[in-house]
Write a structure and sequence with these properties.
The chain is an alpha+beta fold and about 100 residues long. Helices cover about 35% and strands about 25% of the residues. It is built from three helices and four strands.
């Protein structure tokens, strides 16, 4: 087990990443990060600071976390989806996986 904070700059032979329900797909098929399901208290905006601009910034922040994790594996990556069937479907359609 590890986190984005532990693997920055480290290359691993193989990586397994669980994508939780902090990253979701809206009705138009766009990705967004759901702060209600994001449990790192240092990466959230306070209720007073929430705005549409901050929501987009937060989504980019969460996407970057997954990007870092998913680019650490030299020989491969295995993705898992935890409580996130909509995102699993999105990935299958986007990557044309049958």
């Amino acid at each position: 087990m590890g986190s984005v904070f532990a693997v920055q700059g480290i290359d691993l032979n193989k990586v397994g990443v669980l994508i939780g329900n902090d990253l979701q797909v809206d009705a138009q098929g766009r990705l967004f990060a759901n702060p209600e399901n994001f449990h790192n208290v240092n990466g959230k905006f306070s209720k007073n600071d929430e705005s549409p601009e901050n929501a987009q910034e937060f989504t980019l922040y969460v996407l970057n976390i997954y990007y870092v994790l998913m680019t650490r594996g030299i020989d491969g990556i295995r993705l898992g989806f935890w409580n996130n069937d909509d995102f699993k479907k999105y990935m299958k359609e986007t990557l044309e996986i049958k």
